[in-house]
Specification:
alpha+beta, Beta-Lactamase, Heat Shock Protein 90, 3 domains, 5-stranded mixed sheet, about 45% helix, elongated, PAS-like_dom_sf, Sensory histidine kinase/phosphatase NtrB
C-alpha cells in the first residue's frame, strides 16, 4: 500500500474539516468534511485565497500570516466564520505550521454547532418515536369502539321503518367512517415503502409541477439542484407525498399572508453531505433538501411542536401533513428539521443515499 494514497483516504474519511494552505494563504487541499462545512467543491476552491472560503477579521488573518513566518502553532476558540452564502458557522480551529515545500499551514476546524445539531436530532428522533407510539395507542383505543358504534348503527338501521330515523343512523355511520379515516391518516402510510431506484430531483420536479398548477402563477418556484446526486433506494410515491406536504404548507402560508409577500417565492435546493450523522448512524453520503419560502414564518410557540399530529397554525388545518412527512422520511432512515423566522421558513430534509458506514 502506497503511503500517500492511504493518508489521503484517511483525510477524506475524517469528520474533522482539514485545510492545507500555502505561504500566501491559498488553499492547496480541502477534505470532504471541509467542503461540506464551507459549502464549496474542492476543484472550485483549489489555489484560491482562504478568504474565498470564509470571511475573517483582519486580526485573525494577520495571525495566520504571522504563523507562516514564525512557525508557531495556535488555536482559536469560538471563531465565527461568515460563508459566501451568508451562513454563519461557529467553530474552533487550530493552526499548525506544516514542514513542506508547498504547504505552510495545516488548519483543523471543529464546528461547535455539530454537537448541538446531533443533540437536537436525537431529540427529534426521540420525539418522532414517542409520537408514533402515542398515535398507535390512541388509534387502537379509538378504532375499536368506533367499529362497535358503526356496527350497532347498521343493525339499528335495518330495524327502523321510518326514513327520518334512518337518516340519523346514516349520519352515525358516516361520521364513524370519517373518524376512522382521520385516525388512519394520523397513522401515516398503511403499507411498507416499496423501495426501488429513485431520483430526488424527479420527486421534487413532480412536486413543483403540481404546486405550480395550484398556484396559477401567483408564486415563483426556484430551483438550486446539485445534479451530481446519485439515485437511491426509496418509495417514489411516498416521497412525493412527503415533500408535497411540506411545499403545500409553504404555498398556503404565502397565500394567506397579510400583507402579501413581495414576490412570493419557494426555493427547492439539494446538496450532498458526506460523513453525516443522523441519530446514532453515520452515513457516507446524504442528500440535504431545503424547501424555503419567504412567508410570515412559524410562531415560536408552535415551532417546537410542529411535527406533532393535530398541531396546525391554520384554522382549517388538520395538522397531519408534517407528521405524515416525518413518518415517511423516518421510514427512509432520514430526518426532517425546521428553521423559521419572519420572512424565511426552511424545512430541511436529510435522506441517506447509501447504507450507514
Amino acid at each position: 500500500m502506497k503511503r500517500a494514497p492511504f493518508f489521503k483516504r484517511m483525510l477524506e474519511n475524517l469528520s474533522t474539516a482539514v485545510l492545507l494552505l500555502d505561504r500566501r494563504l491559498r488553499v492547496i487541499y480541502i477534505n470532504p468534511a471541509a467542503e461540506m462545512l464551507f459549502e464549496v467543491s474542492g476543484k472550485r476552491i483549489q489555489d484560491a485565497p482562504v478568504t474565498d472560503l470564509f470571511i475573517e477579521t483582519d486580526e485573525a488573518l494577520q495571525t495566520l500570516q504571522e504563523s507562516v513566518v514564525s512557525g508557531h502553532p495556535f488555536t482559536r476558540r469560538e471563531a465565527e466564520f461568515m460563508l459566501s452564502s451568508g451562513t454563519r458557522v461557529r467553530a474552533d480551529y487550530s493552526i499548525s505550521p506544516f514542514p513542506d515545500d508547498a504547504a505552510a499551514l495545516l488548519m483543523e476546524i471543529q464546528p461547535r454547532d455539530r454537537l448541538l445539531r446531533i443533540t437536537r436530532e436525537e431529540e427529534l428522533l426521540h420525539q418522532q418515536e414517542t409520537t408514533r407510539i402515542l398515535v398507535r395507542g390512541m388509534a387502537h383505543e379509538i378504532k375499536n369502539p368506533l367499529g362497535g358504534i358503526r356496527g350497532a348503527a347498521q343493525l339499528l338501521d335495518r330495524e327502523l321503518d321510518s326514513q327520518g330515523l334512518k337518516d340519523y343512523t346514516r349520519v352515525i355511520i358516516e361520521e364513524a367512517d370519517r373518524l376512522r379515516a382521520l385516525v388512519d391518516r394520523m397513522l401515516g402510510p398503511n403499507k411498507a415503502p416499496q423501495m426501488a431506484s429513485a431520483n430526488i430531483h424527479e420527486v421534487l420536479e413532480r412536486v413543483r409541477t403540481l404546486l405550480e398548477a395550484e398556484s396559477k402563477g401567483t408564486v415563483q418556484f426556484a430551483r438550486d439542484y446539485d445534479v451530481s446526486l446519485p439515485e437511491f433506494l426509496g418509495d417514489k410515491a411516498q416521497l412525493i407525498q412527503a415533500f408535497l406536504n411540506v411545499a403545500r404548507n409553504a404555498l398556503e402560508a404565502l397565500a394567506h399572508q397579510k400583507p402579501p409577500a413581495h414576490e412570493p417565492r419557494i426555493l427547492f435546493r439539494t446538496r450532498a453531505l458526506r460523513q453525516f450523522t443522523i441519530g446514532q448512524n453515520r452515513h457516507r453520503l446524504v442528500v440535504r433538501v431545503d424547501i424555503i419560502d419567504n412567508g410570515p414564518g412559524i410562531p415560536a410557540d408552535l415551532l417546537q411542536n410542529v411535527f406533532y399530529p393535530m398541531i396546525s397554525g391554520r384554522a382549517n388545518g388538520t395538522g397531519l401533513g408534517l407528521a405524515i412527512t416525518q413518518s415517511i422520511i423516518g421510514q427512509h432512515h432520514g430526518l426532517v428539521e425546521c428553521e423559521s423566522s419572519p420572512g424565511r421558513t426552511n424545512f430541511i430534509i436529510f435522506i441517506p443515499l447509501e447504507p450507514p458506514a
